[in-house]
Amino acid sequence: MFKRVLLKLSGEFLSDDSGFGINPDTTRQLAQLIISALEGTQVELAVVIGGGNLWRGARNGKGMDPATADYIGMLGTVMNAMALQDAMEAAGKPTRVMSAIQMQAVAEPYIRRRAIRHLEKDRVVIFGGGNGAPFFTTDTTSTLRALEVGADVVLMAKNKVDGVYDKDPQKFTDAVRFDTLTHMDVVEQRLAVMDATALTLCMDKGLPIVVFDIFQEGNLRRLFEGERVGTLIRT
Ligand code: UDP
């Protein structure tokens, strides 16, 4: 069983079928899914949420100063973190949003030792604001925060993809899913797991990654209990 886990959620998990914006019903369902999976386990949970449902620097910021475009993206992740916090707390789970960009009216500033303390007290810590630096993605935030708070694993939650395949399973019917891979396999075969910067950091530090379908009934719970689900990437 894992003791401390970093769960990476895509911003799109908060939106309706359009993939854009924050839908309160969808957000509530996601919060409920996470809370049910946690119930009765001893797992301490940290969450990093992306912002792709609101803004992606490279996609939406064409013609802009790229750093500014990325800062807008980071602010989007704080909006998502607040929406998830609202939904989790409405369902009775104590949480804290910690932002890498200081905005004390809505979120605590990110302070590593404080984040660890929250986790020890069984609060779900939701990291907003990415790394607080442009030219990164929330994949790197997930890896960085996981290492900082001493998480055992990064759980990369996907929708409708239940692991890492040798080719895109939505395009190729003969695509084969891997049960386990090394970080180096992922690099050498250029498999789509997370961006290269994040993956390299995991490889350097020996941090395991699991890629799994969060919306498949029971998957998150099984992972929290230490069962094998999806694809495990380790050194
Ligand atoms: N971003 C950034 N630095 C970070 C994290 C995020 O600049 O440390 C920006 C970047 O523009 C990115 C956007 O925030 O495109 C949204 O994050 P991401 O694309 O990772 O969200 P996801 O696809 O996981 O929803």
From TrEMBL:
- Identify the metabolic or biological route this protein is part of: Pyrimidine metabolism; CTP biosynthesis via de novo pathway; UDP from UMP (UMPK route): step 1/1
Q: Which CDD domains match?
A: AAK_UMPK-PyrH-Ec (cd04254)
Can you say where in the cell this protein is located?
A: Cytoplasm
Q: Which GO terms describe its molecular function?
A: kinase activity
Alphabetically ordered keywords of this record: ATP-binding, Cytoplasm, Kinase, Nucleotide-binding, Pyrimidine biosynthesis, Transferase
Q: What does this protein do?
A: Catalyzes the reversible phosphorylation of UMP to UDP.
- Protein name, as recorded: Uridylate kinase
- Protein source organism: Deinococcus piscis
